[in-house]
Design goal:
two-stranded antiparallel sheet, mainly alpha
Length: 78
């Protein structure tokens, strides 16, 4: 399975994910993926994401509220 290959791959070297995906028949534009990862990392920093899972409420006005009390819910998921 694809996720098994990804977890078994040393992701510290450049191109590791794209090589695994290509081997599995999935095309990946590395430049687009790198841009998306950078955007996600910037958003993570802006929203002060420091744990997984993290829970947010997106309001109709475009503002985002972090649900702090939900951390214990994630700790109990197995």
């Amino acid at each position: 399975m694809l996720h098994d290959r990804l977890y078994a791959t040393n992701l510290s070297w450049p191109g590791a994910i794209s090589k695994v995906l290509a081997y599995s028949g999935v095309a990946l534009n590395v430049k687009v993926a790198q841009k998306q990862i950078a955007e996600d990392a910037a958003l993570e920093k802006k929203l002060s994401v420091d744990s997984t899972p993290s829970f947010f409420l997106c309001r109709p006005d475009g503002s985002v509220l972090r649900l702090q009390g939900m951390a214990s819910v994630g700790a109990n998921i197995h």
